[in-house]
Write a structure and sequence with these properties.
This is PAS domain-containing protein. It comes from Micromonospora palomenae. The termini are far apart. The chain is an alpha+beta fold and 152 residues long. β1 and β2 form a beta hairpin. The protein has a single domain, classed as PAS domain (Beta-Lactamase), CATH 3.30.450. It is globular. The relative contact order is 0.17.
Length: 152
């Protein structure tokens, strides 16, 4: 018969840092990880500005290079979203507020949904992606959102 022993130890608590130190907030900590990720992912701040995006994320969302997008508002950085009708019209402002990165930011909850992305070339086919977003908290309040994408 097997014998199992369990023991409890003290919980490790990180040392507190002041808010001005680099990387002390979750958005700053996630930024480097997203920038170097091989998966398509995106990090925006509370003002909807792109803080970091992976190269794979830029490719999937038809945004060009990461350095062209970082610092711009998400919807002004070249992201063109279409509805799922046969007419393929651009999303209205009311509809764009419901895309997962923005919904997670505004609701403070997980969000998931499909996006239809239009590439720069008119002849290029649209891309449909599944987006899963989570709010990023700093000191208990929403400071941004982190989104992972998957092509469908």
């Amino acid at each position: 018969m097997a014998h199992v022993e369990l023991s409890l130890s003290e919980v490790f608590a990180p040392t507190p840092r002041t808010p001005t130190e680099p990387g002390c907030d979750n958005v700053g900590q996630w930024s480097a990880m997203v920038s170097h990720a091989e998966e398509p992912c995106l990090l925006i701040d509370a003002d909807t500005r792109v803080v970091a995006i992976s190269s794979a994320g830029c490719d999937l969302l038809c945004l060009g290079a990461p350095e062209d997008v970082v610092g711009l508002p998400l919807l002004e950085g070249g992201l063109r979203l279409l509805d799922f009708t046969a007419a393929r019209g651009e999303l209205t402002e009311q509809e764009t507020d419901k895309i997962p990165p923005l919904l997670a930011l505004h609701s403070g909850r997980l969000a998931r949904g499909l996006l239809r992305v239009q590439p720069a070339g008119e002849d290029a086919p649209d891309a449909t992606v599944d987006a899963i977003s989570t709010p990023v908290l700093t000191d208990g309040s929403v400071a941004g959102s982190l989104t992972f994408f998957s092509e469908i």
